[in-house]
Write a structure and sequence with these properties.
Elements (H helix, E strand, L loop, with lengths): L1 E10 L2 E11 L3 E6 L6 H8 L7 E6 L14 E4 L11 H11 L5 H9 L15 H13 L5 E5 L7 H16 L3 E6 L2 H7 L2 E6 L2 E7 H7 L1 E7 L3 H10 L3 E4 L5 E4 L3 H10 L6 E6 L2 H9 L8 H5 L2
Parallel strand pairs: 3-7, 3-8, 5-6, 6-7
Antiparallel strand pairs: 1-2, 1-4, 8-9, 10-12, 10-13, 11-12
This protein binds adenosine-5'-triphosphate.
């Protein structure tokens, strides 16, 4: 369990994290989402004791990270996969970490196997692809067999196979009862991986929700297709519906139920070829929630969709 309570971090005049409170529970993947500069990395660094909070607290299993005995056996983290000694082999990197943290050498072979690097363990990590570096960083996080794991943007720059591998690994770790906090600015990826979502913008909590709740809260009305769309649009607008042209063709109608739209069309003798009630995609819901909270650009450009 991770508990973040009224956590605040100020860098000079900049407020990176602003009275943020949330909990991350065991047995689930919790997605940590927000546009660039939202404060995700800073929050993770505060949880890991790599920076001190200006005020508030970040606790792991009820205690600050700094007071944990044998911290690698309680908490594992992947923050920056590139932070490696380039001349050292994957095997030596992990052996060195294990030795420094009182972890048996047999565990090194296990985690190398688990992340699929056993075959390249003696190669210099500096020559690894980004995907291999991510796997090595994940192996290091898993080394102490911790209950709590934090991953900062682990899918960044990975190919679809790598993305799928990470997704399955996260799901597997959560199924073992571990507490998983996974940051990303890709809602499309979180939709497939996360059970819960903590959404932040400008250091503040925007939403603490589940994937279905978020989708449900942002119903998008009804898609209507008709060969007499313009006439139907006028009729619906007259009756109080909000009608817009849908980018995919047809009409996007909000503020009216499917039955009411059908009845109106029938009363005016207008044929209807399709009526589909729609939930917003999670991506749309996310963009609406975080609109205007991005650091340098709008979230729409940041997500690349
Ligand atoms: N060491 C630091 N010194 C000064 N400002 C910092 C420092 N670390 C972070 N910040 C600022 O704090 C804010 C939050 O940054 P942070 O990296 O936590 O966001 P993020 O949500 O992880 O973003 P990204 O998705 O870009 O990684 C940003 O405005 C950033 O410039």
């Amino acid at each position: 369990m991770i508990e973040v309570r009224e956590l605040t971090k100020r860098y000079g005049r900049a407020l990176a994290v602003d009275r943020l409170s949330f909990e991350v529970r065991p047995g689930q993947v919790t997605g940590f989402l927000g546009p660039n500069g939202a404060g995700k990395s800073t929050t993770m660094r505060l949880v890991l004791g790599l920076a001190a909070p200006t005020s508030g607290a970040a606790l792991v299993g009820g205690r600050p990270y700094a007071s944990l005995r044998r911290p690698m056996s309680k908490v594992g983290a992947l923050l920056d996969a590139a932070a490696l000694h380039p001349g050292r082999s994957a095997l030596n990197h992990l052996r060195w970490l294990a030795r420094g943290n009182g972890i048996g050498q047999a565990r090194v072979a296990q985690v190398l196997e688990q992340v699929g690097l056993a075959g390249v363990a003696r190669r210099r990590a500096g020559g690894f692809s980004l995907g291999m570096k991510q796997r090595l960083g994940i192996a290091a996080a898993l080394l102490g067999d911790p209950e709590v794991l934090l991953f900062d943007e682990p899918v960044n720059g990975l190919d679809p196979d790598g993305v799928r591998w990470i997704r399955e690994l996260m799901r597997g770790l959560a199924a073992e009862g571990r507490t998983i906090l996974l940051s990303s600015h890709l809602m499309s990826e979180m939709e497939l991986t996360a059970d819960r979502l903590i959404i932040v913008g400008r250091g503040r909590l925007i939403a603490d929700t589940s994937v279905p709740e978020l989708a449900g809260r942002y119903g998008q009305g009804v898609l209507v297709r008709s060969p007499r769309a313009a006439e139907l649009a006028a009729v619906l607008a007259e009756a109080g519906g909000v009608v817009a042209d849908d980018p995919g063709g047809g009409l996007s109608v909000t503020g009216m139920e499917v039955a009411a739209i059908g009845d109106l069309a029938a009363r005016h003798g207008i044929a209807v070829h399709e009526m589909s009630p729609r939930g917003a995609s999670l991506e749309e819901a996310y963009l609406r929630l975080t609109a205007g909270t991005g650091d340098h650009a709008t979230p729409r450009t940041l997500t690349g969709h």
